[in-house]
Write a structure and sequence with these properties.
By secondary structure, the chain is of the alpha/beta class. The protein folds into two domains: 3-165, Thiamin diphosphate (ThDP)-binding fold, Pyr/PP domains (Rossmann fold), CATH 3.40.50.970; 187-373, Thiamin diphosphate (ThDP)-binding fold, Pyr/PP domains (Rossmann fold, 3-Layer(aba) Sandwich). Helix content is 40%, strand content 17%. It has 14 helices and 14 strands. Strands 2-1-3-4-6-5 form a six-stranded parallel beta sheet, with helices on both faces. Strands 8-7-9-10-14-13 form a six-stranded parallel beta sheet, sandwiched between helices. A two-stranded antiparallel sheet has the order 11-12. Helix 2 (27-30) links the parallel strand 1 (17-20) and strand 2 (43-46). Helix 3 packs parallel to helix 4 and helix 7 (187-198) crosses helix 8 (209-220). The radius of gyration is 21 Å and the shape is elongated. It starts with a helix and ends with a helix. Keywords: Decarboxylase, Lyase, Pyruvate, Thiamine pyrophosphate. GO terms for molecular function: phosphonopyruvate decarboxylase activity; thiamine pyrophosphate binding. One of its GO terms (biological process) is organic phosphonate biosynthetic process. It comes from Candidatus Magasanikbacteria bacterium RIFOXYA2_FULL_44_8.
Length: 374
């Protein structure tokens, strides 16, 4: 199925409002939707978390009486459960919505370890939540029929329903992947220099390609992986994890984060600022995109990182936009919490691998490293 064909099905059903957080399974559909909805008739509003997207969708319904579409990876169901059950559910405000849910970790289909548990429980979770579901299909007519059926349920019963997307449903689109502003240099080159400056201090790295690149850099340089906690799932939680570690040790600890992940759980910034860990350095590499899912834009373009971080209590904030500023970074005496925001270009190697150690092995090595230092 072409992504443009799904867009046309939405138009035919007058499903003209789309919001959510991207998944790579949907990239060839999302690449066919204009960023602001101009030209294709479908208004597209980017959300920073799946729960937020449910709220935006509810507002659209309140203002128009129409049914919104909310897209998410199945991992995002966790973020969406509260507003689904306490806002849209039939026993509360009773609001219609069609959820486009991708099925990462589908049983019998190999996937990354962070998707295994949610893949096992996705269908059962929808049943528990009382959300009727159908499956999208490569056959356009079957997908159209499934959406029509779900649309009828959503409008007649005024409740959320779900269309489930398995891997490989879409053909690649001829339209280019969305690109963001150019930055300092590519993220992997930035990480090379950062890891050299950080040395043997513990690092908590965000989900996606950042953790993958850190693992490969360490391997290439014959360095140990034990000082790195690679947050392969739980998007947005790297800062919280690092804060929990920082409050238990006097040693410096570094967060290497991304703009999309920080936006998903921005409240953690206020928590860090409140507890004032002097040993914490929060590095945010901002490329303005969800690169792991196909390069869709985040909303970081309008963010004033320096003002934001200082307003919540970060003691020192550095904004890095040039190679000279990057080279001059000094973490010797952070006097934290210290924030460092580095502008990055979008792009990664096509042969980028994945960590060869299991999450449990990574955890055990990191715990041993931290506890031996203390």
């Amino acid at each position: 199925m072409q992504g443009s064909e799904l867009v046309e099905i939405l138009r035919q059903n007058k499903l003209l409002f789309l919001t959510g957080v991207p998944c790579s399974y949907l990239k060839n559909f999302l690449n066919c939707v204009a960023d602001d909805g101009s030209g294709d008739g479908v208004r597209h509003v980017k959300a920073t978390s799946e729960g937020e997207a449910i709220g935006i969708a509810a507002g659209y319904h309140l203002a128009t009486g129409r049914t919104p579409v909310v897209y998410m990876q199945n991992s995002g169901l966790g973020n969406a459960i509260n507003p689904l059950t306490s806002l849209m559910d039939r026993v509360v405000y009773s609001m219609p919505a069609i959820l486009f849910v991708t099925w990462r970790g589908e049983p019998g289909h190999p996937d990354e370890p962070q998707h295994k548990k949610m893949g096992e429980v996705t269908i059962e979770l929808l049943k528990i939540l009382g959300i009727p579901y159908e499956f999208a299909d490569q056959d356009v007519e079957k997908t159209k029929s499934a959406i029509t059926k779900l649309m009828n349920i959503a409008t007649q019963k005024s409740q959320p329903v779900a269309l489930i997307f398995k891997s490989g449903l879409f053909e690649k689109t001829d339209r280019p992947v969305l690109k963001t502003r150019s930055g300092l240099t590519c993220r992997e080159q930035i990480l090379e220099l950062l890891l050299e400056k950080i040395g043997a201090c513990p690092v908590v790295a965000t989900t996606g390609k950042t953790s993958r690149e850190i693992f490969e850099i360490r391997s290439k340089n014959n360095q140990s992986h034990q000082s790195d906690f690679l947050t392969v799932g739980s998007m947005g939680c790297a800062a919280g994890i690092a804060l929990g570690v920082a409050l238990q040790t006097k040693d410096k600890i570094f967060i290497i984060d991304g703009d999309g992940a920080v936006l998903m759980k921005m409240g953690t910034l206020a928590t860090v600022g409140y507890y004032q860990p002097k040993n914490l350095v929060h590095i945010i590499i901002d490329n303005g995109a969800y690169e792991s899912t196909g390069g869709q834009l985040t909303v970081s373009a309008t963010l004033r990182w320096g003002q934001l971080l200082k307003s919540v209590g970060y003691k020192k904030v550095l904004i890095v936009k040039t190679k000279k500023q990057l080279a001059a970074l000094d973490f010797e005496r952070p006097d934290g919490p210290m924030g460092v925001v580095i502008s990055s270009a979008v792009g990664s190697r096509p042969d980028l691998g994945r960590p060869s150690v299991s999450p449990v092995a990574n955890k055990n090595e990191f715990m041993k490293f931290i506890q031996e230092k203390n």
